[in-house]
């Protein structure tokens, strides 16, 4: 096909803006470049200038997808299962061999027999046990458990006067909190942590990380079959809506993985914001934390899932003036939607209390556990700021690297310094397992 009539992309490539076709996928912006950028909003602006609210991007070399950035366009996709499916068996590039079976995208994008990969009645059947589990969580008990975890962690490094709030704090709390809900001990929690970091990275080790993660959960599930307990694993084993070990395992995997990664990022980004933004840092030093304000701002600016995988078009259609072919992959740009002027003004006074962000997605697949996640994140942020007053970031924002991932933006480190408490902190005595 001649490209003489096609508009020019900023990097010199020629594109058919209706179909997203280019001379090669090398001409497309890699999704991981956006998540790695110091300010993704600049790249979203660049994509919008070329494409509008639905832009062609690259998932990995040679694998294209649509990045949907507009709030209304994301809502159309998320609410319309008849046109946009979560079932990756509809992904044309996977069926046709464009995506390799051992692709690092597999753990996040390939089909699994779980609630994420189902639509319609099947999705509702698999979703019901997860909704039931969330209602079983005792929030007071969970808060006490998280407070104990946080106090123990802070006590382990407080006397040093410095710490890495990712490796020593934010990465540990949600895993131990979620693991305890499912009856997993601390050692297993740390083993799960290593597997999940690889899974969400979508790199060369993602499939091995996913296998390790599922092996740990499968062994725990077998233990609970012979020794039931008052935990969420036993509740799922006995739930009448789930048929067989495969569905039970996948339900546990969804809850543990989503509960860990999103809460970790929410804690990390909230701490980073409160320690670096002058508007909030002054309140922290003055003893008025403003935690919920900071947490909500993170959900607009840097939500736990920057890019939510993935929907697959079931038929040819149009979205945002783009021609979407049957089998195309569409990524929900949840962070990009936060800067959509049609829903978010960008004026803090006007947007105060505005929670119409898409951080938890929308429609049938919206996150069911946002309230426990907020409880864990808020407790983690407020506990350390209360126990270590005067804490300051020991690096500039520009010097803080991000963990590699096309889906999330999580600080790899968050170095801080603080005056050691005059009286040594003692580890909490509260039980770890609620």
Automatic annotation (TrEMBL):
GO terms for molecular function: heme binding; iron ion binding; monooxygenase activity; oxidoreductase activity, acting on paired donors, with incorporation or reduction of molecular oxygen. Gene3D superfamilies: Cytochrome P450 (1.10.630.10). Belongs to the cytochrome P450 family. This is Cytochrome P450. InterPro entries: Cyt_P450_B, Cyt_P450_sf. PANTHER family: CYTOCHROME P450 YJIB-RELATED, P450, PUTATIVE (EUROFUNG)-RELATED. SUPFAM superfamilies: Cytochrome P450.
